[in-house]
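Input record, target 12 of the design panel.
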């Protein structure tokens, strides 16, 4: 089963560096045949370190910033909410295990946190992460994105950064 995992492409994460990502992902999926497209949406809860340590306060269930980008809503087969950096939630893990998935294609936002954590957790779980580098971006910009992709090359293998 060929799965695309789109991480946290949400309205609150759109800026000059990331605004092209939703359309680029949409274009990509028209040229590649995925059996399932899963998207994640970060929702902060009241007692998290995201609030106390990072001062993230605008990603609650009802905030407009936490809404998934409409283009991603259109192409995703499944939208799952999470409250962690990693998109390898119990629901995603169960889906992958149930379908005996051996590799997952990953794209979306934010490369230095969500993509990195998700790719490493997949790798640690025995599932090959295939990071679609041209479909990932950091809110901090291309330099942070590039540095994180270099780290991932060493951590999961350069052949898994596409």
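The sequence produced for target 12 reads:
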């Amino acid at each position: 089963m060929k799965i695309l995992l789109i991480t946290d492409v949400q309205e609150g994460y759109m800026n000059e560096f990331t605004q092209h990502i939703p359309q680029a992902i949409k274009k990509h999926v028209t040229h590649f045949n995925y059996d399932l497209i899963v998207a994640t949406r970060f929702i902060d809860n009241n007692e998290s370190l995201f609030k106390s340590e990072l001062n993230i306060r605008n990603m609650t269930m009802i905030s407009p910033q936490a809404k998934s980008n409409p283009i991603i809503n259109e192409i995703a087969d499944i939208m799952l909410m999470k409250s962690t950096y990693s998109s390898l939630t119990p629901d995603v893990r169960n889906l992958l295990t149930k379908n005996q998935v051996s590799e997952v294609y990953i794209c979306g936002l934010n490369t230095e946190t969500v993509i990195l954590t998700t790719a490493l957790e997949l790798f640690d779980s025995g599932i090959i992460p295939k990071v679609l580098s041209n479909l990932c971006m950091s809110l901090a910009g291309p330099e942070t994105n590039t540095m994180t992709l270099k780290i991932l090359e060493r951590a999961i293998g350069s052949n898994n950064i596409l």
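The chain has a mean pLDDT of 90.
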